[in-house]
Design brief:
two-stranded antiparallel sheet; about 20% helix; alpha+beta; elongated; 2 helices; about 80 residues
Length: about 80
């Protein structure tokens, strides 16, 4: 976990095991894996939509940027019992 706020994952390490890859092919494999969709998504975060529902089947959606994030206390809600 990252030490700064907001709480988030601080770093990821991805290991790709390719049996019997020759040195000339290793460079090509590195290039391909450095452009994978997961890596690109983590580097340029997508818009996130959170959908909340209740037992009546009512649902509401709101972009994470416009949801309750601007109302979370500076302490991350720790003193208020809020869990994100």
């Amino acid at each position: 976990m990252a030490s700064e706020r907001p709480a988030r994952v601080g770093s990821l390490t991805i290991s790709v095991d390719i049996p019997e890859v020759s040195p000339p092919r290793a460079g090509a494999c590195q290039a391909v894996t450095s452009h994978c969709a997961v890596k690109n998504t983590l580097e340029i975060p997508p818009e996130i939509t959170i959908t909340l529902g209740d037992s009546s089947g009512t649902q509401s959606s709101e972009s994470l940027d416009n949801a309750c994030m601007d109302r979370v206390p500076a302490d991350g809600g720790r003193d208020s019992g809020v869990t994100l």
